[in-house]
Amino acid sequence: MVTYELVDNCLNTTFENIPDNVVTHAKMCLLNWASVAIGGSRHRAVEILVGMTRELDVSPQVSLLGRAEKTDLLWGALINGTSSHVHDFDDTHLETLNHPGSAIAPVCFALAEKLELSGRDLLRGFILGMEADLRIGNAVSPSHYDAGWHITSTAGVFGAAVAAGILLGLNRDEMVFALGIAATQASGLLEMLGTMTKLLHAGKAAQNGLLAALLAGRGFDSTSRALESPKGFAAVFAPQSDLTKVNVRWGHDWELLKVAFKPYACGIVLHPVIDACIALRKRTKPSDVKEIELIVCPYTLILTGKENPKTGLEAKYSVRHVTALAFLDGAASVDQFTDARALSPEIQSFAARVNPIVDDNIRDDEALMRLTKIDGTVDEVHISHATGSKENPMTVSQLTEKFMALCGDRLGEKNALGFVERLGRLESESGISALLSLGTAR
Length: 442
Known about the structure:
Elements lengths: L1 H10 L8 H20 L4 H12 L6 E2 L6 E2 L1 H11 L8 E2 L7 H14 L4 H22 L2 H4 L4 H4 L1 H13 L3 H12 L12 H21 L16 H5 L21 E2 L10 H10 L8 E8 L1 H7 L7 H4 L3 H11 L9 H4 L2 H7 L2 E5 L8 E7 L4 E6 L12 H16 L1 H12 L8 H7 L3
Parallel strand pairs: 5-6
Antiparallel strand pairs: 1-2, 3-4, 5-7, 7-8
Helix pairs in contact: 1-10, 2-4, 2-19, 3-4, 4-5, 4-11, 5-6, 5-9, 5-11, 6-9, 9-10, 9-11, 10-11, 13-16, 16-18, 19-20, 20-21
């Protein structure tokens, strides 16, 4: 049975069984996650959630990254998961367009703090949760995403449940039930892209997966065939699926190693477009541009075909807007995606000159940009692999720069650098209280 085999694989994988390169990449995932969680910790969506915890008088058990407040386990997972997804700056598994870290890391940090677990414990739970999440995502892709499900949330809830189950020490049957409880809570619609509700998806996956494990550990039962049943997750959520992908070559091939990091604060299908803009603007002034033709992959228009965005969030899902933004500003970070910039006449005028064209032969991390100047001359650039993609990855140094840019002002430079240093040796830490003291506001 697929579900039991997955559970057995997870329970039988000790920290010592995990290759050093996987541990190293997992720490990069956590550094990236912390940077975007702290960077997003003052977003209005997060403020609303934190405000609700005050109204509900929630018990202060675990930390909120980037903030002084504490909250209980479930709210902590929800809020830290949401804050890490607000800027669309989180990690990405390119094959499935999944952002796994935002659903799994919040659970690991909450439980490690509450249960006073070691950094090694946290890493094992995180790695196994990520691996389960991504393999389940592989099994239902691409039809699952094409049907309108947001895989960050729907697959993420399984990864969160696995991570929580590992850290809680659940036994085999409890872990199986945790996956069943997680499966019935799987949700998240692509219709929500560009709204606060989309940001909530990662947080709810974290919260729901944690709840699943907590319930299972207390004797709450469920199905033992959550993944493979004729009325289970794969059959209901994906017109086509291949569940052999869940457990194939477990311990030999690591999906976690395919997780990439974003240099730009928007959907990764736009990253090759941004790279192209930054390259071409070095040779052409914006006032000289008559038209830009973009050759992009199908998902670019599926995910970022929004016309006339009115907010910073909506702007992240408009290929025309992002092309204009990147060409005019030479950047696409958090500061570019504001409501004011979305409504800028300068941006809107330039966006009207952008013509995206879909080519089925173009990969997700590839783009061709052809620019026609007012004088009729043509210039073009081909981006084979976008910055941040698996073939052109961000380095630890670049991730550290990203962390400092997003978190330096919030934490203070000394604390921010200390956080990076401690996270880099997480497997040697006896607990995470010192790390959290550097990553929370005072």
